Amino acid sequence: MLESPMLLSRVPSVPHGDPADRRTISYDDYVKTGGYEALDKALGMEPKDIIEVVKAAELRGRGGAGFPAGMKWSFLPPQDGEQRFLAINADESEPATFKDQVLIAFDPHQTIEGIAICMRACQLDTAYFYIRGEYHHHRDIFENAIKEAYTHGVFGENSRMGKVNDRWPNLYLHRGAGAYICGEETALLESLEGKRGWPRIKPPFPAVSGAFGRPTIINNVETLATVPPIITNGAEWFKTHGVPRPEGAPPHVPASYGTKLFGVSGPVNKPGVFEEHLGLKLSDAIEKFCGGMMHGKKYKGAIPGGISMGVLGRDQYEAELDFDIGKKYQCLGLGTACVTVIPEDVSMVAMARNCARFYSHESCGQCTPCREGGNWLYKVLSRVEQGDGTTKDLDLLLEVAGSMGSMPGTTICGLADGANWAVRTIMNKFWDEFEAAVSKERFVSLAVVGQ
Length: 451
Ligand SMILES: Cc1cc2nc3c(=O)[nH]c(=O)nc-3n(C[C@H](O)[C@H](O)[C@H](O)COP(=O)(O)O)c2cc1C
Ligand code: SF4
What we know:
The protein is of the alpha/beta class.
């Protein structure tokens, strides 16, 4: 078990403290407890050396895809003296994901310090904190923390970071309008530019042509909040947390080092957000951190981190929650590591229908397989759930789902992969329930044969 948290060191969390005692850490409180020392250290380093430390730590993005942060930072083209951006993804709209909100509400300066270090490392002059529109309370807290950072010379004129690209560094908060697709990095950029949140075709990747056509780094809140402890304690210290790369994997496959915020929701006794080593077992998350299942309910399955990752099945209760989860347990990946526990009394057919409805509703509509396919999945699953489905419908569902997404190469962004993996993994792992749902058809055909 983790001895001392690195992300929630100031935020009481199970098992180190009582979440009821949480309060927002001010700039002064943050500084009193070692805050902004990592920035001071980074300011004494060459920008490229900061990137090397983050690369050596093998820090992987915490927004869902797990892309190595240091590698992303090194994709920027050489400086040309013009403006360059950092966009911080605080959209957090993946269903049942609520981990970034804890950092924003209770320790905003840890993220702000990570933002400043990233700007220094990548020589970025302007940062936009893109927060989902509905998070009014979090917006107020973060806006206040930004003001504090300006007052104490982190940003703005005469910033302690000095001028970058001949500009004083600035951090602005930008509110989204609350669309799930705006969490996708290029839709976020469109929205930031004041346009409709439609994902862009990649390449060019944002590091080359991002906000307003300029080089832009996009990172998740938790990814950036993990940077200050890495700079303070070093890459080797960071790598004593989490789990190494899988045995036999080539060196370019990144490991799952570090700690992670895990969020658990569903029928458990103590749902919430806590920090642990990557590689935490699902069974331990439920039993040791969340007080077990509520009302003696039995575990049936779990969503590892956003339904776009698919589901873990009945026999995957001992799954290790790390970035290798996809290969080991036949789901898309770890995603946000915000687990939704599914109890025995939930119908998986209803759940698949509900997921399909969500993706169909949230599709931006640019790609036909996502716009039309998503709606088909929803309609056919509704039919199956109502008892009017046939075995052919089950084949049709798997065929339609398998044809949508950026991995089969038919869509621009990963939203359609989310719909695809949700429906296919629920069907594959709970096939018995789908068979039972169409069994009425079998009775009808037997009756016809009997005549
Ligand atoms: C449909 C969709 C929604 C997404 N929503 C979010 C989100 O709410 N927050 C987030 O950090 N990343 C989200 N992502 C992932 C981002 O596109 C991007 O990979 C991430 O912000 C990069 O940050 P990281 O490298 O620090 O993880 C989403 C991706 C897709 C396809
Ligand atoms: S996959 Fe779906 S959400 Fe993504 S760009 Fe295409 S239509 Fe829009």
